[in-house]
Design brief:
seven-stranded mixed sheet; OB fold (Dihydrolipoamide Acetyltransferase, E2P); about 400 residues; 22 strands; Dihydrolipoamide Transferase; 3 domains; Chloramphenicol Acetyltransferase; four-stranded antiparallel sheet; alpha+beta
């Protein structure tokens, strides 16, 4: 019995996807739920699993094809057995046992190793034999960093021995002088989408950024005092992001315009708090959404963030987890950023930027003391958020973090 494999239903916000790479070729045996092909959208890489066990009979579309929901990708002969050592892709039908050839099928080259989409691009750009790259991921999957490390090691290898004097190398002057070459690489769908959204936000919103600084002494002391007990009880580390997420919810309650969005001539005030947390991956920046942060505990927030970060970098995060959001937090401090002006994640109207925690001298009660300080930034759409609201929003976040008891008492 033949089973069709089709492009899964894409969300309304995603018009199409690009077929990145097949993991099987016609004639290969497949198991149920085994990943057959990767589809890249402007948000995530989707894996298309096999619906049944059998043999991949025919591939309908080659790598690089743009596909839409429901489009036919391949045909599987359910229950069939692959013929060992066949010179051409062939299968043994489960119904009549006759050998069939899939010679007319599209035959993309089978990858020598499981390559992530980012790794595949680097391999193709540098014309590397993927068999030579050792994968550090699950089941030997090769990541972009594996390929970069391979290239670095290759560049550092000693040069081959010089030629014999009998075959001198002609002294041909370089036409490039001391300058390097160039490479032209197409943007990935995700990178192109990020670029589109950033330009759109700056073109359609009246963006302005306000700043403040936070003394994180109280939060640091709380983390130090309870981190071991917290991790033992909840199975996750107590980070800073849960404190910031909770502080932002308290500020959003007080200033609803910061949690609102513009639709035409209307302002939509969201009565829920779905906070996006920016995560950096090899493919670009994505923003998974924490739903109903006001109803989540610190442990639930930390677990969700850790789960999102791991799956985002592995490329297994879902569309639904990237959809929506009423406010966003981004942390450039993990990369050492001391100050920045983040760009709003449209159609949202504001984004909070966290930065590096740095010991600085500050004056408290007429005395100079050293405290762990962080600059925070709020970029907002000035069409619906006034400067007063933006400044007071940051002051509320500052107060909640400098005195965390406020978040417990709702002050």
């Amino acid at each position: 019995m033949t089973i069709e494999v089709r492009v899964p239903q894409l969300p309304e916000s995603v018009a199409d996807a690009t077929l990145v790479s097949w993991h099987k070729k016609p004639g290969d045996a497949v198991t149920r739920d085994e990943n057959l092909v990767d589809l890249e959208t402007d948000k995530v890489v989707l894996e298309v699993p096999s619906p049944v066990a059998g043999v991949l009979k025919e591939i309908k579309l080659a790598d690089g094809t743009t596909v839409t929901s429901g489009q036919l990708l391949a045909v599987i002969d359910e229950g069939a057995t692959a013929l060992p050592g066949a010179s051409a892709p062939a299968i043994m039908s489960a119904s009549d046992g006759a050998a069939k050839t899939a010679a007319d099928a599209v035959k993309p080259d089978a990858p020598a190793a499981k390559l992530s989409p980012a790794a595949k691009r680097v391999v193709e750009e540098n014309k590397i034999d993927s068999k030579a790259v050792a994968g550090s991921g699950r089941d030997g999957r090769v990541s972009k960093s594996d390929v970069v490390n391979y290239l670095s090691a290759k560049d550092a290898a000693p040069a081959p021995a010089s030629r014999s004097p009998a075959t001198p190398i002609p002294n041909i002057p370089s036409t490039r002088g001391v300058r390097g070459g160039e490479q032209r690489v197409p943007m990935t769908r995700l990178r192109a989408r990020i670029a589109e959204r950033m330009v759109q936000a700056q073109a359609t919103q009246a963006l302005l950024t306000s700043f403040n600084e936070v003394d994180l002494t109280a939060v640091t002391e709380l983390r130090t005092r309870y981190k071991d007990q917290f991790e033992k009880q909840h199975g996750v580390k107590l980070g800073f992001m849960s404190f910031f997420a909770k502080a932002c919810v308290e500020a959003l309650r007080k200033f609803p315009a910061v949690n609102a969005s513009v639709e035409g001539n209307d302002i939509v005030y969201h009565e829920y708090f779905d906070v996006g947390v920016a995560v950096s991956t090899d493919r670009g920046l994505i923003v998974p959404v924490l739903r109903d942060v006001d109803l989540q505990s610190f442990a639930e927030i930390e677990k969700s963030i850790a789960n999102f970060a791991g799956r985002a970098r592995a490329g297994t995060i879902t569309m639904e987890e990237l959809t929506g959001g009423t406010f966003t937090i981004t942390n450039g401090g993990v990369f050492g950023s001391l100050l920045s002006t983040p760009i709003v994640n449209a159609p949202q109207s504001a984004i909070l930027g966290m930065h590096k925690i740095q010991d600085r001298a500050v004056v408290i009660d007429a005395a100079v003391v050293v405290r762990p300080m962080m600059y925070i930034a709020l970029t907002y759409d000035h069409r619906i958020i006034d400067g007063r609201e933006a400044v007071q929003f940051l002051v509320t976040v500052k107060q909640c973090l400098e005195d965390p008891a406020r978040m417990v008492l709702g002050l």
